[in-house]
Fold each of these.
Amino acid sequence: MSANNTQFFSKIGLIAATVGSAVGLGNIWRFPAEAQAGGGAAFLILYILCVVALGIPVMLAEFSLGRAGRTDAIGSFSAVSPKHRGWRYVGGLSVVTAFLISIFYMVVAGWTLEYLFESLTGGLYSGVSSASTSEAFASKMDTYISGGWRPMVFTVFMVLINLAILLGGVTKGIERLSNILMPLLFVILLAFCIVSLTLPKAGEGLVYFFHPDFSKVTPSVILSALGQAFFSLSLGMGILITYSSYYPPETRLVRTAGTVSFLSILVAVMMGIIIFPAVMSFGLADHGVAGTTLVFSTLPEVFVRLPLTGLWSSLFFLLLAIAALTSTVSIVEVVIRCVQDRLGMSRKAACYWVMIPVLVLSGICSVSMGMFNFLDFLTAEILLPVAAMGVCVFVGWIAPKSLLSNQLTNDGSIRSRVIGLCLFIIRYVAPGLIFLVLITPLL
Ligand code: PHE
């Protein structure tokens, strides 16, 4: 283990932590809904293209910045290019974005815990049967999600779990957690794939998912594939800058970016393989597989029709809680590292100084849908794209030319054939497309 607990200990650990951040509710519940709206495999193809052609280069820009800077998201900008001090505000924007996202993501993470609890205790299925209509589950969802003190209790609980892990630091907290939870996440996903494939209409579901319907591809579907790629890789949030500052000098960044992206795509594909056969088999496809309803209302309707309802339901919400937890720790870490490095605080003090406001604000957010929706809109539609564009312009145009090449080749000790292509994408293609994403709502 590194002496000061500020460097990931093993290669597996750093990949587990980075994948843990990338694989979140974005892959699990947002992807199936977007795929349904965007022509099944047609959307999948677009999404993969966006990840490979744009996501990976931008991820490499964030990795380079973080590992060269070896400090928080703000300090990395000044460390890499001390002459251009104004650019640290882009880092500042990422930190603010991370703080705001952590507030409402903590609320959703709290819902996953609540549903796990209700699955384990049987509360979710009491008074409903396989003959129950979707209204029964929709009304449960109402009680659980907008029911006064209940979501608040679970949100607060989620914040406290995050605090306990983050107090452990990088290796003993984040890395250890990811090493345990990420393999578990994949095992659960695999179990669900197998179950789903044995359902009566599995074939129909797979055809629905894997048959590309290009007639559904509109410019707005292309932009949402791009948005989905960026969100699911955790770009523009300062997370990858912060995590890569904990990467040792010998980490191969291109390989790491490839592995993280591959696993993130894999989870999205597995979710498609799970969701579509399940909703088809029970005639629930017309209920829509849209985010919140899919996860908290349609899927319980699937589970109630399966033998061992409680087991499947508990496992599924455990899966969601794991995905949410490994993402929330990564986003809060951005802010904690910043407070630690900017204000010279100890790890412990920084954890409390960050987590107390997160606790209060996410507690309020858990009972205020208006605040929740506003934060979601502000971060996803405005702050994230602006911060991601800022990183691209900085790494592509402002930082020394050698930054990317030194980082991708580990200072010349390994070869990399993608530097030129990456630089081209970071300079021209990515900022241009992100700009389009930003202005589309205004058109
Ligand atoms: N990639 C994450 C996801 O899909 C994005 C994220 C990370 C969001 C951390 C919030 C916190 O959910």
Note: The chain has one domain: 11-442.
Amino acid sequence: MSAQRKDDHVRLAIEQQHTRSGINEFDEVSFVHHALAGIDRPDVSLATAFAGISWQAPLYINAMTGGSVNTGVINRDLAIAARETGVPIASGSLNAYFKDPSCADTFRVLRQENPDGFVMANVNATASVDNARRGIDLLQADALQIHLNTAQETAMPEGDRSFASWVPQIEKIAAAVDVPVIVKEVGNGLSRETVLTLQNLGVRVADVSGRGGTDFARIENGRRELADYAFLHGWGQSTAACLLDAQGVGIPVLASGGVRNPLDAARALALGACAVGASGGFLRTLLDGGVPALVAQITTWLDQLTALQTMLGARTPADLTRCDLLIHGALRSFCADRGIETRRFAQRSSSLEALNEMTGSTR
Ligand code: FNR
């Protein structure tokens, strides 16, 4: 059952990649163009550091799979691409391994192919502390991801709808394991309230994984005989909305969910993300063109992100948070209703401050 579900997820996620609506709230975030803001490309670094973690670039392959023969092959290829490009990688949920240890190799391959890389083990919020430790050991993981997926479990034919234990369980795991704990959604987003709760539970990092890309309510509905949960398609907040919502929270935030290209990555970093993850899009590239295609895509993204930072005058990814941003459309309404001041995003660059000093403007 579990192995079949893993294969279904891959098939339906890829189907979604081919029929994507194209609606993505990253399109409602634009940079103010300052024609003299540019710097020299050699002065740009992609390095990012947060919660004691240091990555050479702010991009990672987010959680996907493992647990069946087919997904073991996918994990092997993802791991090779991660190794060749130096980006971090997460496993899919290790629940399949806890239920049936005979599929261990389909996950362990992530470490075997990528011995020196940054690998994250992924569990659900009902995992016991012992199982969380087993998952970390299996992958010799550098961090632990715990996923939150109420919309997925709700639409999943065989879903588990007991959510009340998640909060105490996350707190127990966060206190017990030796690696940083990252709590993530699976494409429906984390609200500010959720991120603040996670912070109080001792979670080190939140990955908002919002709406805009892979839609797990749609995937699970596609596995239902009657497909009677179509009303849950598109549930949740977009990744851009989540990043705006999480401004000023006390823990580092990562961005995933519907990141389509290097400009979306730059937008997410400018909205405060410490790094940006992608899943469905990378999987599609891998299945269409194999490891060389995925390596080429990641290499291009890193090159083009460097180019964007150069044009925008951002020596580091964190410097993008000083670039001026305009927030449009539905995202602007979201901000108005959630009490998020959009004007300050449009007027935050040091060049504007300097300009104000020069001209005596008090704006
Ligand atoms: C996922 N995702 C996921 N997340 C998680 O925490 N554990 C998991 O086991 C899985 N499994 C999984 C399978 C497949 C085939 C896909 C495409 C995705 C969710 C993933 O990590 C991410 O949060 C969402 O997919 C949103 O990102 P994208 O796909 O829009 O870039």
Note: The chain has a mean pLDDT of 95.
